[in-house]
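Bug report (template v2)

What were you trying to do?
Predict the complex of my protein with S-adenosylmethionine.

What happened?
Run completed; filing so the output is reviewed.

Input:
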Amino acid sequence: MQMTKDTHQPSAKALSWTRYWRSGFQNTCFFADKAFSVESDWQAYFSTAATGTKIIDLATGNGAVAWIAAAVARDSNRDVAIVGVDFADINPGDVATVDAELLPRVTFVGSTDLAELPFSDAEFDFASSQFGFEYAQESAALLELKRVLKPGGKVRFLIHASEGAVHEASTQRLRRARLMLESGQIIPLLEELAKASSNGSAPRITKVQKRISAKVDLVGRKFKQLPADDLVFELCREAKMFVTAVGQVPAAELSARVRYLAEEVRAYTLRLNAMQQAARNAGQMQGMCQSADVLGFTLSNYEAYYVDNQQVGWIFLSQIP
Ligand SMILES: C[S@@+](CC[C@H](N)C(=O)[O-])C[C@H]1O[C@@H](n2cnc3c(N)ncnc32)[C@H](O)[C@@H]1O
């Protein structure tokens, strides 16, 4: 395995994912507003990996799927090497709550685009990806995957669908997050409050405090049907704290916290926007199968993937002849 890292500057997109994974999230499998598990299907896929084989998990994040592969290998007493790659600067061993026994079974390689894999030709027997492969440039990533897989190598991806409940939920989330950044909304109002607090202008501070309180009430009423953990409510809670913190907390501290919040919301919108762009419809899945077979894969096919009778994605299956 060549382990040379990409030395390009990380893009804003990659940084937005680095933020996400470093804050300790385990995966991105959510269905509307509840988490869903796809573990048993991954276990079935990895159960055919014999001792001596190598698995690559593409766009691995905090290694949700890589850890499943590691647990399957451990439980079946097989020596299987697992590598997780991602273009975010990941370090899942530090942040993920994982059984310590699994740590030595997985190698993570961050800051790596799927279109430029730092591995030798024909190194891997299995490839997996969960809501990840589709974020990369498709034909470049397929070509790289073809190169690093051995003859007979197998591929299984779970891919975002551009219809269905997950897509709809993320579209709504994105809309709300963008709204919070618009002029007159919570983030700009908090920025205004931080500025007024730095300038020490009491009438200005009071005026902005009132506007924020009114906005929080309005947002609370407008979105009252949403689950309590939605971003808009988190921002409302923060906004209320700011209103009372002015004068008690140093202005520089307030400004730093507002900057952090604004960056978090922007990173969130970048990730959701990337997810929207990555999502595929049936025609695009068909096109991906055709491209894969043209590029040297064989028997590429796809099917809708359901959880609780709702489509949460597509399964893409393929192999190297
Ligand atoms: C929705 S997350 C999925 C992560 C993980 N597979 C999971 O199920 O939790 C998408 C991941 O794709 C990664 N990603 C996006 N574009 C990429 C690219 N071009 N090359 C490598 N990784 C990429 C992101 O950094 C992010 O970690």
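What did the reviewer find?
Confidence is low (pLDDT under 50) at residues 1-6. The first strand starts at residue 30 and ends at 31.
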